[in-house]
C-alpha cells in the first residue's frame, strides 16, 4: 500500500515532463485541490485516472469538495491538468512530429486526450452499441449513456449561478484551460491544436464524449455562426489534406435540419467508416461542364449526391453549383419549397473523405419546412417513430449512426418484460409499438427478446432517416430527384 497522494504524484511524473524534484511541488498542488485530510489514505491503485477518481471520492468524503458532479469535474480536470503540457508545448510537439509523420502526430494527440481524461473513455464505455442489417447496409445504433444527466440539486444550483457569457459557447477557443462552473463544463485539461484553413485560424480537438473512433471537432477561432458555403467545401477538402485518413463533415446551417450548435462554425471528423460511406451509387450522373467529376445518387434513405474526383477545383465547382441550385429549387409536386416569405428552407449536409488519390464529397440535400401535419418538420422523424427518436437528425445520424436518448435503456427493458408476459410498465408512447411486436413475435423467449427489440429499433432508425430524406424512395420520389439533378445541368 502506498499513500494515495504520493501514488498520484508518481503517476503524474511518469506521464508528463515533470521530474522527481517536482514531487513536493506537485503534492502541494494536489492538496490545494483535495485537502490535507487525504494524506492518510492508502491505495493499491496504479492507473492515473483511477487515482484521480479516488482522490475526488476521498475529498468529497471529507467535505473538501462538494457533492455535485459539476464541482467534482472541475477539481478532476484541474488534477489531470497537472500532467498535461501547456497549449504551446502541445502544439509545438504536434507540428514538429507532423513534419515526419502526420499519423504519429495525430495519434500522439489522441492518446494525450485520452490519458489526461479529456476524452471520457470510462463514460463512453457505458454506451449501448450494436448494428442492425437494413436495406441500406448495417446501421449503427447507440443509446447514449456517457453524458451524465443532471440531478435536481445540480439543476437548482445552476439556476442560482451568476450569469456569464464567457466562454460564449462550448466550441469557443476560450474553453481551453477554463476552470468551469456549475452551468459550464470544466476544461482545465483541454488542449486545442491550431491550424490554418485558407485565411482563417481554426482549432482541432477531440470530443470528450465521442460517438465513434477518434471523434474530432474542428472549430473556427472566431465565434461566428454555422454557414454552408463554397468555402465550406474548400475547407473540408483542405482538412482532408491535413488529415487524409479522417472523414470530415458539417452539420447543416439551418434549424430542424441538423443537430448542432448553430452559433459557432465547426466541423466534425474522425477515423470511422459509416454505413453511408459503404453505400453504393445506384444511378450514375454526368454533369455538364464537370465531366472530370464522377457523380451519382447514393442508395441511401436520405437524398445524397456523391461526387468524386482528383480534380479539386472541378469538384469544388460542381459542389458549389449543386448548393446554389438547391437553395433556389422548388417542386410543389413533392412538397419541396426553397423558401417561405424570404425564410430559406434548403441547405446541404456535406461529408468529405479520401479514397486513394480521389476526393469524395457526399452532398445530403436538406429541407427544414414545417406544416400543420408535421409541426416538428416535414423532413424530420414523424410522430409514429418519435417514441424512439424525436430529436433533429444531425451529421452523425445522417451517415447512419443513431444517437438515441438515455431514457431508452429503462424503457426498452420494460418493453422486453411486456413481450415476455411479465409485469411491466411500458411507456404510453411505446405501447402501440410493443403491441405490434407482441403480435409479430408471439413465441419470443428470454433468449430472443433482446434481439427482437434491437432489430426493431434498428429498422425504426432506418425509417427515421427515410422521414428525413427529401426525395422519398418511391418511383415518384426518385423521378423528382432526377428533375432536380436535371435542373443542376446534366450532360447530354
**Looking at the structure, what is the overall shape?**
globular
User: In oligomeric terms, what are we looking at?
Assistant: single chain
Largest sheet: 10 strands, antiparallel
Number of helices: 16
Straight-line N-to-C gap: 79 Å
Strand content: 15-25%
Q: Strand order across the biggest sheet?
A: 5-6-7-9-8-15-16-12-11-10
Kindly name the structural category.
alpha+beta
What is the number of E strands? 17
* Helix content estimate: 25-40%
How confident overall, as mean pLDDT? 96
Radius of gyration over C-alpha positions, nearest whole angstrom: 25 Å
Poorly predicted runs of 5 or more residues: none
Domain Galactose-1-phosphate uridyl transferase C-terminal: 241-434
InterPro entries: GalP_uridyl_Trfase_II, GalP_uridyl_Trfase_II_CS, GalP_Utransf_C, GalP_Utransf_N
EC number: 2.7.7.12
Keywords: Carbohydrate metabolism, Cytoplasm, Galactose metabolism, Nucleotidyltransferase, Transferase
Amino acid at each position: 500500500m502506498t499513500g494515495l497522494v504520493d501514488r498520484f504524484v508518481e503517476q503524474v511524473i511518469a506521464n508528463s515532463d515533470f521530474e522527481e524534484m517536482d514531487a513536493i511541488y506537485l503534492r502541494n498542488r494536489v492538496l490545494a485541490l483535495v485537502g490535507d485530510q487525504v494524506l492518510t489514505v492508502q491505495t493499491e491503485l496504479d492507473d492515473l485516472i483511477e487515482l484521480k477518481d479516488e482522490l475526488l471520492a476521498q475529498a468529497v468524503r471529507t467535505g473538501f469538495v462538494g457533492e455535485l458532479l459539476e464541482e467534482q469535474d472541475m477539481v478532476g480536470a484541474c488534477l489531470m491538468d497537472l500532467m498535461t503540457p501547456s497549449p504551446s508545448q502541445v502544439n509545438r510537439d504536434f507540428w514538429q512530429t507532423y513534419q515526419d509523420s502526420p499519423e504519429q502526430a495525430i495519434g500522439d494527440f489522441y492518446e494525450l486526450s485520452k490519458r489526461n481524461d479529456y476524452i471520457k473513455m470510462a463514460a463512453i464505455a457505458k454506451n449501448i452499441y450494436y448494428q442492425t442489417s437494413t436495406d441500406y447496409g448495417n446501421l449503427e445504433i447507440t443509446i447514449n449513456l456517457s453524458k451524465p444527466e443532471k440531478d435536481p440539486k445540480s439543476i437548482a444550483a445552476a439556476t442560482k449561478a451568476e450569469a456569464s457569457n464567457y466562454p460564449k459557447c462550448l466550441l469557443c477557443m476560450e474553453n481551453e484551460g477554463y476552470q468551469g462552473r456549475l452551468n459550464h463544463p470544466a476544461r482545465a485539461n483541454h488542449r486545442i491544436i491550431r491550424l490554418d484553413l485558407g485565411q482563417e485560424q481554426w482549432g482541432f480537438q477531440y470530443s470528450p464524449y465521442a460517438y465513434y473512433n477518434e471523434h474530432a471537432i474542428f472549430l473556427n477561432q472566431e465565434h461566428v455562426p454555422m454557414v454552408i458555403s463554397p468555402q465550406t467545401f474548400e475547407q473540408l477538402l483542405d482538412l482532408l489534406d491535413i488529415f487524409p485518413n479522417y472523414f470530415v463533415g458539417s452539420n447543416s446551417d439551418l434549424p430542424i435540419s441538423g443537430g448542432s450548435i448553430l452559433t459557432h462554425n465547426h466541423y466534425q471528423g474522425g477515423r470511422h467508416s459509416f454505413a453511408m460511406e459503404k453505400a453504393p451509387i445506384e444511378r450514375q450522373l454526368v454533369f455538364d461542364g464537370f465531366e472530370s467529376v464522377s457523380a451519382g445518387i447514393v442508395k441511401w434513405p436520405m437524398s445524397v449526391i456523391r461526387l468524386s474526383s482528383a480534380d479539386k477545383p472541378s469538384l469544388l465547382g460542381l459542389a458549389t453549383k449543386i448548393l446554389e441550385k438547391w437553395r433556389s429549387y422548388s417542386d410543389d409536386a413533392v412538397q419541396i419549397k426553397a423558401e417561405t416569405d424570404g425564410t430559406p428552407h434548403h441547405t446541404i449536409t456535406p461529408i468529405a473523405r479520401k479514397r486513394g488519390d480521389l476526393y469524395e464529397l457526399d452532398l445530403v440535400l436538406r429541407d427544414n419546412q414545417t406544416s400543420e401535419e408535421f409541426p416538428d418538420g416535414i423532413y424530420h422523424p414523424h410522430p409514429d417513430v418519435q417514441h424512439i427518436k424525436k430529436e433533429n437528425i444531425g451529421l452523425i445520424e445522417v451517415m447512419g449512426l443513431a444517437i438515441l436518448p438515455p431514457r431508452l435503456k429503462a424503457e426498452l427493458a420494460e418493453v422486453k418484460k411486456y413481450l415476455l408476459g411479465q409485469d411491466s410498465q411500458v411507456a404510453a408512447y411505446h405501447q402501440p409499438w410493443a403491441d405490434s411486436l407482441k403480435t409479430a413475435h408471439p413465441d419470443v423467449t428470454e433468449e430472443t427478446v433482446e434481439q427482437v427489440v434491437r432489430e426493431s429499433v434498428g429498422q425504426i432508425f432506418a425509417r427515421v432517416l427515410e422521414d428525413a430524406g427529401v426525395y422519398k424512395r418511391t418511383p415518384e420520389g426518385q423521378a423528382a430527384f432526377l428533375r432536380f439533378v436535371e435542373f443542376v445541368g446534366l450532360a447530354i
